[in-house]
């Protein structure tokens, strides 16, 4: 019998983050359009699609890009669907199958006007349609930067699958380095460039790169803290900061959560301190840089807010858990069965908390 506490303390890491929650005014209309369009792909079984809808992927786009135009919000919503569906498909596969899926996705990105082969995994067509729409109105610098960052994410997904095949748990430093890519923060941040001609000298400047890394770390910490309960229940907790900290530092769950929250605070300070180091590239470019930096900071807030508002990680209890900081530890379940190109069963994951008892007082 597991003697560890059955309730997890989940600290609110974003209490002091200066950028507030905001929602794009086009959210409701665009959500309806994108949700209907996504269902046409039939990428999931009926049951899994119902559960996927409860994730409310469009909400993350609306929170992440509150000032985007209607057209660019639609592209952002489609991108979030791309992130989630690639994640759902590859997360349950071995490295060889994941690598094949990644190859399909990369080919679709580089050939957005080419008809996908009959019988191919649906990921190819989903990504092709997303990118064909995006490049119609996106700046060329954005297109280059997005392709670079998203390809890095896809390559990292293969590495994650290799780790999963070997049940390998990385050191904290190695894990954070990989997770900066697998959390998909960098391609998400690139969306803020869609209407910008942001010069490479800005995008690749060491200070800007470090600020992007900070936001990626804030995202991965929040995501791993909030998703840990779901992942430990499904046996997929090795690619999670909480597990990595528990293993390397010999802490229990509560101790690892405290460690992660403290590290989050350190990264917040690195980001805010880093803003003071941003150089000037002239008035016209500086305006773009400020918009870009405010955007990525908003994305960190959006990721945190959405994680409690969606049913993807905490079911219907997200707002309550944000208020109390307590979440009931879920029992172990088996929902990993899949095969190449299969429709992934996400239904159990979003509804798992329906049978959990309300959170109580954590053990010492």
From TrEMBL:
Signal peptide: none
Keywords for the protein's UniProt record, in alphabetical order: Lyase, Magnesium, Metal-binding
Cofactor(s) demanded: Mg(2+)
UniProt key word rRNA processing: no
Segments traversing the membrane: none
Top-level taxonomic group: Eukaryota
One record GO biological process: isoprenoid biosynthetic process
GO MF, one example: terpene synthase activity
EC code(s) of this entry: 4.2.3.-
Pfam families: Terpene_syn_C_2
InterPro entries: Isoprenoid_synthase_dom_sf, Terpene_cyclase-like_2
The family this protein is said to belong to: Belongs to the terpene synthase family.
PANTHER family xrefs: BETA-PINACENE SYNTHASE-RELATED, TERPENE SYNTHASE
Protein known as: Terpene synthase
